[in-house]
Amino acid sequence: MRSLSRTVLEALARRRPRYALQVSAPKLGVCGLRVRLSPTSPLYSAAGGEIVELPLDQVIAPVVLKRGAWQAEEIELIATYAPPQPSVLFDVGANIGLVTRQLLHRLPTIETAVCFEPHPDNFLYMKRNLEHLPRCVLVNAALGAKEDELTLYEDVHNAGNCSLNPGAIANANCRTTKIRCLPVSDDLLLERVPPALRDAPIVWKSDTQGYDETIMCRLSDDFWRRVHVCVFEILRIARPAYDPSRFAAILGRFPLRRFSDEPNTPVSVADILAYAEGDDGASRDLLVARAAT
User: Fold this and answer.
1) Which of 215, 139, 226, 149 has the alpha carbon at shortest distance from 184?
2) What values do phi and psi take at 244, rounded to 5?
3) pTM surpassing 0.85?
4) Is 235 within 8 Å of 52 (Cβ atoms)?
């Protein structure tokens, strides 16, 4: 006689096969997937990008399996304000490479992408997900104030939730690993760019779970003059101190400022600084840009 659980699982597999895979994977010891993409997916490329590799978590994998895309709203915003001429993408906290992959598929004007990802497993996923895009430079490190070996805290249920700050992750869901941190500077970033593109416009994306402001404030005015569009996360947790006046000066360089969940609503520098002062664990992605192309 069949057990009830087997009957339910077989019915689920027929009706919702991807969800059945997710719920059964832990029992089977499956922790990752190779997914053949639909040609309509922004993650798809006929030039070697027919497959995407995903950690089988409870956040990234379900979204990509259902929608065939990741952070589609942010991708659209960046594409709207990206420079029309040859440019460079810096992706800080690149995770498994999905944002970079979609942007390079969408924007052939991005001639080089420099991706920083400190988590060793995520870095390997990223390396495989971007191997059909030879213009990517991949760095297995975090960015911070100095060169160091640090503890990275990882949410076991969300491969995208890794932080140097334990306050970003619930203790019950947390595991740790040691990672390398590099001291962020203009030179450290630009030395990874081909010489012909050292003066090219810049597209900036960062998602570092509470360290974005610190990293951004350590880059020079000359660097920010070249940035045409920037999307980064503001995570309202206790995080490293940064200079609010310096951060305000960077934001003030960009006439267009929007939270990604309200892309048609302008937001002031003062409002952004006020939001960043919170400590309730909420987060929003902010877009700042020069002008639509």
Assistant:
1) 215
2) -60, -35
3) yes
4) no
